[in-house]
Amino acid sequence: MTEKKETPILKPLRDVGIVGYGAYIPRYRLPAREVARVWKSGTGGLSIEEKAVAGLDEDVITMSIEAARNALARASIDPTEIRAVWVGSESHPYAVKPTSTVVAESIGATPHTQAADWEFACKAGTEAMQAAIGFVGSDMADYAMAIGMDTAQGRPGDPLEYTAGAGGAAFLLGPAEMSLATIEGSYSYATDTPDFFRRAEEKYPVHGERFTGEPAYFKHITSAAQALMEALNCSPSDFQHVIFHQPNTKFPKRVAKQLGFTMDQIETGLLVPKIGNVYAGSSLVGLTAVLDVAEPEERILLVSYGSGAGSDAMSLRTKALLPERRGLAPRTHDYISRRTEIDYATYARYHGKIAMK
Amino acid sequence: MEISRHWRLKRQRYALIGEVCPHCKKKIFPPRDICPECSEDARTLYQFSGRGEVYSYTTVFQAPAGYEEHAPYTVALVKLEEGPMLTAQLTDLGDEPVEVGMPVEMVTRKLRSDGEKGMLVYSYKFRPRFKEAVR
Amino acid sequence: MTMTQDAKTNKDVYIIGVGMTPVGEHWEKSLRELALDAITALQADGVWARPQALYVANMLAPSLSGQTQLAALLADFAGLRGIEAITIEAAGASGGAAARQAYLAITSGVIDVALIVGVEKVTERTSAELEAALSTSSDADHEAVHGITPTAQAALLMRRYLHEYNVPEDAFAGFSLNAHANAVTNPQAIYRRSIRVENYLNAPMVSEPVNLFDAAPLADGAAAILMARSNALPEDLPYPPVRIAASSIVSNTVAIHDRSDPLLLDSVVDSSIQALQQAGLKPEDIDIFELHDRYSIYAALSLEAAGFATRGEGWKLAHDGVIAKDGEIPICTFGGSKARGDTGGATGVYQLAEITLQLQDRAGENQVQGARFGMAQCLAASGATAATHILSRKDGP
Known about the structure:
The complex is a heterotrimer of chains A (about 350), B (about 140) and C (about 400). By secondary structure, chain A is of the alpha/beta class. Chain A has 13 helices and 14 strands.
């Protein structure tokens, strides 16, 4: 074998940052105790309080449009300057036909733009973001929109059903000098690890139960986080905030501890107890909650996880522009506090779990 | 199965793009090419803000074919702040009562799907204005 | 346009015979059979002259029965193969529109005798398909696509009316009470029973604030009228022919949202004024007004727009009994759409047939005593088309 190489950190030719960000969380909430009531599974081990559920007229397309509009409002740029609209999700409404073209059309980014959908389980959104960093960082484009959004599905009665939620976020990547937060560096780590998957044509995913833990979530997140911190020559105490993919409340807390982060550092971005696991939007919507409150010159570590499996890690530094721009769109907690509780039957209807034909 | 019709209308449906009359400055939605005010040509595109208020509203229980899965739903005449009125559904109402004069804002939502295999049709709908919706 | 006295006399157009089927759920009858029933009823009344043209009023045959070419089909089925036959569609105003076409053809001198048949068959499909078909009368791209229905449109207008005008809870009840009271003695009516104000107040909502008694039942039916020029009248008519003193059609925006004042039915204003001017009459000269009462809000708005009430007070005419058979301006004298039953595109032909019976003193227990002038007005949906006719006794001015 060869000697140990330097970690291949991803660093673009020109500095890139987030010039606009926007969250979207639908208004309906299904309490975990309601799922427990129906499936008689007790309420002792519930890992979240409630999850966000999309309305009958919502899907990844409509939710991405609103998040993208919020990002655009904060960026305050002309949408025709956007050269890519990329949407990562595992619940694209069409099997074939891009979500991204509808989003691009709706925000006025067509026709001089790239548009494509990304799929990598729960890290499809950060994957789109990595690509956008490269796209802008290579100077091919000044602006690229990366979105992670999901209306996550879980088989009725499956443990996933407690947490599989709806929501996500959009990020407009652009030149660092115009940004609300710059990307200090990023790194991606992927292996073939089948911890969770959904075959084509199947409605619900299957998961490997405890296999989703150590060899999957924990292995990939810790590897990615450690590699990036090492390459950037920094340690957990250098960050004010850290956001991990959050399939439940337990995993992100445990991985934080493993890596040496405190509960204070993960608190702001840990939304899973209130909105559930929003899959491709999970870590990204956590980042929006952090950007909603962070002061300039704070450092943020974001580490996603997608089954299959891989992690994207990014280090961000907030800039002076952030506080004045965040008021231009609803904050993530505005969406979280806009809530209407629904029962399991309504949830079943909204999620198409009642056969209508 | 309808395809080109929805495609043709996408700009107005997704983003509330109407027209402004270059002669009398009247804002026009839905776009109609001839100004209803001064009868001159009016094809200049105009992006509406999406803010408006409810002029009237009701609930549809007996839905037409293609809309049954969404019933009951609320429809309204919405007066846009730029002047024109339009017909649209109200959405995200939660438990709040709708009232004549209620401020609303445009969102892009799914209207229907054209059968099992056909297109998903997206369009403007209106919801209670976001800030007002926050308790 | 000027018309010499001589031409006017010669070109007077008359309704010489009428025939109607009962309005109801005619499961056993097709479109063509319903139409033939109406024609047969007309012939059985003892009035017939072979028409040179057939004008069929229909709205829903293409969408509900998969049938275009309805007029040709009916001409053939009625034993009139070979005559000029066309279908006239103007949604709920189709009946008035077909009568208008016949009137124009006859006054032009090209046609001497025309048959107008209004026919509608609404029971062929399930309710969701019917709603979709009815919604085609709104702007497909900007109204119907949003899932709006004619009932919802009426509710939007009624809600705004209630918002703008201070009206009591039972304001619109009078329209339903009057229609039901008049339908009791109409053998063609679908609901031959009277209702009380409590029934109205306790009725379930269809689309708030439109309740079950604000909405007319849609049903199958057909009506026929035979129209002829004064110099082509058959001899030995058993009943006096009824003169068409005025005929007018006015269009307006199809979409309600395109109107600057949705509570003002502009097409009704203009069509009523045109018709009254043609007939040389004022609103107070009209003895019967068969108006558009598919939903009670339209009855109120029509009374206001046609000049019988000031704005915001149309409901008072119902509330105070002014629209009753013995009131100052009787409406829905055979039950109207509310209780005779609404037959879509055929409704306007029923209206004309009913006024004809009134002016021939053949309305039986529904007779409005001494009526000389009757105005029939049908609207398409929320008033995108208003078709108005004024009928007069033969000896009228």
